[in-house]
Amino acid sequence: MTPNGPRFVYGRSVSQGEQLHAEVLRGRFGPALAAIASLRETEPAWAVLIERSHALASGAELALGPVPSGPGAWRLALFLVREAITGIRPMPEVARPDHPVAGPLIDGWRALATGGAPVALEEVAAEARRAQQPALVVECAALTALFAARDGDHREALRHGRRASRMARTESLPQSEYLAGLTLARLRRQAGHPHLAARILLGLRPFVSPHWLPWLEWELALAGDRSVSTPAATALLTARRAAGEGERAGLEAALTDARTRVAGFRLLADEAEHVAALLEPDAPRLTAEQERAFSAFAGDAYVVCSPSGPGRRVREASLPLVSATVVESGGKKQKRIATLAAVLGLAGAPLDEAECFERVYGFRFVPEMHRGSFDVLLHRARASLEGLATFERSGDTVAMQVLAPFAIADPRMVEPAEARVLRAIASGGTTAKEIAGATGLSLRQTQTLLKSLADEGECAATKEGRIMRYAVEDTTFSEPTRA
Asked: Is the pLDDT of residue 475 over 80?
């Protein structure tokens, strides 16, 4: 068999264009670009696909002309649809090919972009394996993970996301590694581990081609990192900054900008609405599970208590837009008072003593054991919130009467100091001093937390001379293949 002749995979003839594209998937463009002139004559679809793949990898602009037909057209159609969606660009008008792998994958990407029903891809992945197309197997796993996360099955999403990441790394497929890594980072953030998401995204960013940056930096901004420059991610940070400065007009303008930039990709467009709900104090609230995905971006949860009705949750980022006194809660005793105020404030009505106690303390109320401690808590709460609220017990019920609007952190939804330290490490802080500066914690407290986290295996500690350096690692993700 000559280098330009056909070869066979499970009895299927593989043309020169497909052979060269297999090399392109591994980041080896030289042979394919050398043969591009002859490919334009014999296999134009493969030629266009190789040219666009090279443009994608190098960041060059390549205008799309008519989509050629013939061998390789199915792979080109899939590439164009995926490229548009992952790059947050307008989707091209491409006919769906009658191909057992490309057709369903295009359906899947379009469903993800438009909010359609998930596409089952198990048999499609099996067909891709039989055809020895590992990049498409990875794509099936990544899409399945994104669908599962979108529809609330985070356990299944993580299973497929981790599998995609490991397969892409094993096969040394750069673009597949970028897709799988971005998917895994998204899943980590949604599971409430923004430090792992930031670690993955910051690990990917030096390697990915510019095409990936709009989505990658969108995820990075939501993971709590501020070192972004692409327009959609910048719009998110502008909105957060405007909310933090109490600028309603600036907030609305930035949110409109963010919505516009991701309007063609429903997955991110829904997140733009979630960000709006977190930053606009009067917007309908998200569920606790939805808010978990934005904890690093929007800050801790506060409860705004009002004399006019039940309290409502807002995030720290939007506190300057709320007309209420902000009550700071520091030590353990103050946090218990804050929890009591948050529980009664959200209820907006008297609560049964046992129910109130269980919500505050997290375990069942036994009157003969706990009533004395609960009475002490009520006494301390009256003193701490004097002028803002009063606390009364009437029979077996407990009530809080709000005298003036106030906002208080809900300790049940406050990011632990350990999580803040891990995020600082993931964002580039390697020494205790750097991490303390990034988190606002004291150096002594930071050193204590770092020792505990290192002992528990949450971060790695390495001594360099007299300096201890720290790092967080994801057990699935590893540095991408250099192509």
From this structure: no
